[in-house]
Amino acid sequence: MDPGSTLRLRRVTGLAAVAWAIAAIGYSVSILFVAPDDLALPLRCSVAGTRALVEWSTPEAQNAGVQRGDRILSIDGIPMSSVLREGVGFLEPGSANRYAIEKPDGRVLVVDLAPAPASFHRRPGQTLLHVALLCVAALYLGAGGVVWWSRHERADAWAFMLFCSMMAADVASSPRLDLAPWSFPRVLANLPLLGASAFHLFSSYPIEPNWIVRHRRIRALPYLAALVLVPLVLFAGAFGDAGAAVVYESAFFFGTGLAVASLAIPLMERRRAYDAGIGARTDIMILAATLSLLPA
After folding, report:
1. Distance CA 234, CA 227 (A)
2. pLDDT at position 258 over 70
3. Which of 2, 176, 198, 289 is the most buried (most CB within 10 A)?
4. Per residue in 45-72, pLDDT tens?
């Protein structure tokens, strides 16, 4: 590819990544303005991978035996992954829904619970945490933008921009996955892109491994896999509940696994980096990368 085409490719993909991150931040901001009298699930859940776990619940749910750490399997027979994808528009005032809850020992508890007002989920500090995560997302996007703008001709600046954009989208989308439709699949769709951009960045900076120098096209393979997984995740509902579960699990383990495995690249190149006089820079990169991937 000639230099002009390379710069155009970087510009298009960089702008697409920025747009993806801005959309995630904007959508997350909109969740802050959900009316307090809107209906919500009587179970405040967090999503660990593809599992919805109870954080807290209404007194009615507690009296029925629901506890922190229980896994929500389904609501009215609809798998929780589908509920997280489609939202809670099926909730009606004064009408109870049937919840299947898996206890830590494997027992399944079936309970009928009435919806809760959205204000029930707004515990002290939750909104502050949400805003703080939005600020972190904006910092990621800003840092990536500044580096890319000032060094747009460098390949590692492009890789840094892509990684920061995916991190911004991930951090911004993480609050209240159970409240807004499509938040859950967007997070899962972002993970393969995050993994691919992590591999891209950590194989580019601060030192490029010899095996990458010999075969630079290897960097494209994770992106190709991500381009397959992203639409599959976004349209997983077309594959039925069982098929959607497989797609979600695949995207989750591919993205997180690749991101974590990519940390091994600067670790393996640490000796070469010290020999080249950039050992301290490499150590800082390893520490920063490890801290960055903790929220993912």
Report:
1. 11
2. yes
3. 198
4. 888 767 889 988 999 999 999 999 999 9
In sequence order, the 6+-apart residues with CB closer than 8 A to the CB of 187 are: 47, 170, 173, 174, 177
- Rg of the chain on CA atoms, in Å: 21
Specify the pTM. Answer: 0.85
**What SS3 string covers 216-277?**
HHHHHHHHHHHHHHHHHHHCHHHHHHHHHHHHHHHHHHHHHHHHHHHCHHHHHCHHHHHHCC
- Side chain identity, residue 153: E
Neighbours of 62 (CB within 10 A): 14
* C-beta of residue 175 within 8 angstroms of C-beta of residue 137: no
Q: Residue 33: helix, strand or coil by DSSP?
A: coil
pLDDT digits (tens, 9 = 90+) for 152-194: 888 889 999 999 999 999 999 887 766 666 778 888 999 999 9
Say if residues 59 and 81 touch (Cβ distance below 8 Å).
Answer: no
Instruction: Return d(Cα 6, Cα 267) in angstroms, integer.
Output: 29
CA distance 296 to 283: 21
C-beta separation of 173 from 84 below 8 A:
no
Helix axis angle for 3-31 and 126-150, nearest 10°, is 170
Pairwise CA distance, residues 79 & 246, whole Å: 13
Q: Where are the domains of the chain?
A: 3-29+124-293, 39-121
